[in-house]
Amino acid sequence: MNKKALIVAGVMSGTSADGINVAVVRIGEKKIGRAGSNFRMHQPKLPLHRIELLGHAEYPYPSKVRTAVLAAMNAERARVADLARLNFLLGELYAEAVLATQTRLKITADLVGCHGQTLYHQGEAIFFLGRKIAATWQTGEAAVVAARLGVPVVSDFRPADMAAGGKGAPLVLFLDYIFFRDPRVGRIIQNIGGIANLTAIPARARPTDVLAFDSGPGNMVIDALSEALFGKAYDRDGKIAASGAILEPQLRKFLEAKFFRQSPPKTAGREEFGREFVREFLRRCARARKQDILATATALTARSIADAMRRFVLPKSTAHNTYREMILSGGGARNATLVRMLRGSLLPLRLRLRLTDEFGLPAEAKEAVAFALLAYETWNRRASNLTSGTGAQHPAFLGKISYA
Ligand SMILES: Nc1ncnc2c1ncn2[C@@H]1O[C@H](COP(=O)(O)OP(=O)(O)O)[C@@H](O)[C@H]1O
Ligand SMILES: [Mg+2]
To answer: The whole model's pTM is what?
Structure first.
């Protein structure tokens, strides 16, 4: 088994369909733990990883590609020939993104972990043609990536967990657990992508102690309203929302949605907070000032995260574990208004807001680093789904390998 340190490129594109994040990481293992920011102690059964971020970059999708990706997620409109073509096109774009990053960093990856673009995810089994079936679909042809880069590519991470009875998500849990668990402080690792998802890690947690679920919308509603009202793909730095006032009665109504009251585990997607939700949002805010509508959408993300803490996470505090920190990642961490609102909502809960950047993981790179790590685990023939989070019956080797 190959245990020497590897240079691994992680490639991520999330539900925002904003583009491609690439992180290049050196990953190795140590038998004995050593102090230092890049060394993270493990459970005895897990190896002791050394994870060092060498660099990262972000490549927005060209606007025609973004439109095609969003159309591909729309079951009513997608055409099968276009889906097949999109798979190969994204393979080319992922390869180009890695090549560009390698050139910039003057480094070459030994291995790639490529998440792909999720077109459809249904983690819970439902009846389909007489059988109970769960399904997921990530596109972006790994054979193309492997051919262009000349190194093996691990892709398609979610199906193995689902074949083991899991929801296929969240998989980032593995990195969260390895990187952020702490002997003294309970931490909530909160990612704000299109959807907002979190991992709650009690102090001194074993892998089975982590709690992970989606709290609700992340940037998805903000982005959609920004596009609809201002013709902008997103509210850069939260400037527009900062100029508006929160519509409190409407916000309270939105926060009563069934999803927010549902107990975890739960996952959200465009099904919950996509087109339909945004249409309803606009209907209820009719006649309000445009910037107030955006401020309200931003507050919805911040408050629904705080509500999720109050309802589902903080009650799990014990004598040995108090949650004291929320550590933020994802594109939403760059929305200053959202961060300000979130910090305010967490204050009464005695949660301090920090960024993953403080731990050497830039907010926009964290998920790409996670898939580099998962690729490394699979390459070393180790299972890396944390079954307490995904609900799988047994550990599973995540992903498929395309050899160059
Ligand atoms: N400077 C910024 N100001 C405001 N919002 C930002 C900024 N940078 C990124 N974002 C938000 O983050 C989103 C992308 O976040 P990301 O973590 O890539 O999500 P996903 O994983 O769903 O692709 C963008 O659509 C945008 O809403
Ligand atoms: Mg993204």
So the answer is: 0.93
